[in-house]
């Protein structure tokens, strides 16, 4: 396939649309693609006027996608049972006939609780148009979903989406915005009480870990463009997942998360325990010393170990083999460093993404242990709606699926930036140090948004 300009690719896609034969034995999804010349994906996405807008860049991956519009989606605003979700998943699986067809989306942290408007408890989108970069290669993809619409109707919709594409305008770095007010939920006083409740020996005996979190609501004079914020954030933490979901002009969720929930390559699964945190040093020597202290620290090691043990236990019935013997390592970010251990599994041939999500999400890196007790505590005491913060975001496809845990994330709304940060609370947790850990986790995004 020769590489063409975007307008030539659009013309060629429209030509191919016109040539699509009447449905005989069409697959439920038709995906057309054209190679195009290189262009910055985030700037292209920011310039588009069609919603949803989705951006996805996997960690350790030289591939990124910017997607707009929707030709099919699964959206659940109300509680949905596991059985219902399983049947929707089965239906969805039928659409993933070709390797390149992907549903992008997310699952809220807690499907039993109300979530944010637009995002719901579960929302997955088969985009209308995708711009994908794989290393140096760029492709414009067009998706058509035939089950609900007749072929001619779908062709008209696809054509109109192509007609509405806008040329990319260069992104300018976000201006630092003035914070008019900041509201923390829970407040620091309440945080202290909650940490004391979780570390109380009687409670702790049954529930050894709860990941408590905080919502920091910043009232701002000027709402930043979420895509320029994400582009800047991405530059600071290249070794993270970077993604954004915007279903309407009103709100956009962006994340620069270091944490992988899982990556599935057919039956090979990669996951990890990422928990336990300290700051970065000012000099290489100090940085190394802090890393060594983190590796040697008992509370942080247990914090990580809980996640590892839980993941291995959950994966065991779904796998032929689970390997959690990789050494404990340090994962360095811009302002902080974490304990990190890779876990691999060879999945049973009939294990589905639905089962994986159900078993693994939320891990004790964002929920706690045992899962049910920790979730009950969070529901009852945290005092705000986590929505997609600490949820599972990513994509599903036939051979490859990948999900990140949506921490280090922000929900941007007119006049308000909502930031989220959590910390694993267990025996030995000190309320003030854990509060400071929340601040450290926000340091990178704060330094981008405000004078810091
Ligand atoms: C829940 C968060 O971080 C988790 C992931 C890595 C380290 C963590 C910790 O050390 O507490 C948390 O478990 C968050 O950043 O909001
Ligand atoms: Mg911690």
Automatic annotation (TrEMBL):
Protein's pathway: Quinol/quinone metabolism; menaquinone biosynthesis; Quinol/quinone metabolism; 1,4-dihydroxy-2-naphthoate biosynthesis; 1,4-dihydroxy-2-naphthoate from chorismate: step 1/7
GO molecular function per UniProt: isochorismate synthase activity
Hydrolase as UniProt keyword: no
Pfam families per the UniProt record, alphabetical: Chorismate_bind
Limits of the Chorismate-utilising enzyme C-terminal domain: 189-441
Signal peptide (residue range): none
Annotated EC: 5.4.4.2
InterPro entries in alphabetical order: ADC_synthase (IPR005801), Chorismate_C (IPR015890), IsoChor_synthase (IPR004561), MenF (IPR034681)
Catalytic activity entry: chorismate = isochorismate
Entry superkingdom: Bacteria
Cofactor(s) the record lists: Mg(2+)
Positions contributing to Mg(2+) binding: 303, 437
Enzyme class: isomerase
Classification via Gene3D superfamilies: Anthranilate synthase
Keywords from the named record: Isomerase, Magnesium, Menaquinone biosynthesis, Metal-binding
Catalytic site: 209, 259
Function: Catalyzes the conversion of chorismate to isochorismate.
NCBIfam families: isochor_syn
Family, similarity comment: Belongs to the isochorismate synthase family.
Stated name of the protein: Isochorismate synthase MenF
């Amino acid at each position: 396939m020769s590489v063409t300009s975007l307008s030539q690719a659009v013309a060629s896609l429209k030509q191919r649309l016109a040539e699509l034969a009447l449905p005989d034995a069409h697959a439920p999804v038709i995906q057309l693609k054209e190679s195009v010349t290189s262009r910055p994906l985030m700037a292209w996405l920011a310039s588009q006027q069609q919603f949803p807008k989705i951006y996805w860049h996997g960690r350790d991956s030289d591939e990124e996608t910017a997607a707009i519009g929707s030709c099919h989606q699964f959206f659940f605003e109300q509680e949905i049972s596991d059985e219902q979700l399983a049947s929707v998943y089965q239906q969805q699986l039928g659409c993933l006939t070709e390797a390149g067809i992907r549903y992008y989306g997310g699952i809220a942290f807690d499907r039993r609780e109300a979530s944010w408007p637009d995002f719901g408890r579960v929302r997955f989108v088969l985009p209308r148009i995708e711009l994908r970069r794989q290393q140096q290669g760029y492709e414009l993809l067009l998706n058509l979903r035939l089950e609900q619409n007749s072929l001619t109707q779908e062709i008209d919709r696809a054509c109109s989406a192509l007609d509405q594409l806008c040329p990319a305008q260069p992104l300018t770095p976000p201006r630092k915005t003035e914070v008019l007010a900041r509201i923390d939920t829970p407040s620091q006083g309440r945080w202290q009480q909650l940490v004391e409740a979780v570390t109380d020996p009687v409670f702790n005996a049954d529930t050894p870990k709860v990941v408590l979190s905080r919502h920091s609501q910043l009232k701002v004079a000027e709402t930043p463009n979420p895509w320029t914020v994400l582009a800047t954030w991405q530059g600071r933490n290249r070794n993270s997942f970077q993604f954004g979901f915007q279903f309407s002009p009103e709100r956009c969720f962006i994340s620069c998360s270091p944490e992988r929930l899982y990556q599935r390559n057919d039956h090979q699964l990669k996951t990890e325990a990422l928990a336990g945190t300290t700051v970065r040093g000012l000099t290489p020597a100090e940085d190394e010393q802090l890393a060594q202290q983190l590796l040697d620290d008992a509370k942080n090691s247990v914090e990580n170990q809980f996640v590892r043990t839980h993941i291995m236990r959950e994966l065991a019935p779904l796998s032929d083999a689970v390997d959690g013997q990789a050494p404990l390592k340090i994962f360095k970010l811009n302002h902080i460093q974490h304990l990190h251990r890779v876990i691999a599994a060879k999945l049973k041939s009939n294990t589905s993404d639905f089962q994986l999500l159900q078993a693994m999400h939320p891990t004790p890196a964002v929920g706690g242990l045992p899962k049910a007790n920790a979730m009950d505590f969070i529901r009852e005491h945290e005092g705000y709606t986590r929505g997609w913060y600490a949820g599972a975001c990513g994509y599903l496809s036939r051979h490859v699926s990948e999900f990140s845990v949506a921490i280090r994330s922000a929900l941007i709304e007119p006049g308000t930036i909502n930031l989220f940060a959590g910390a694993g609370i267990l025996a030995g947790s000190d309320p003030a140090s854990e509060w400071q850990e929340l601040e450290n986790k926000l340091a990178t995004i704060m330094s981008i948004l405000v004078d810091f």
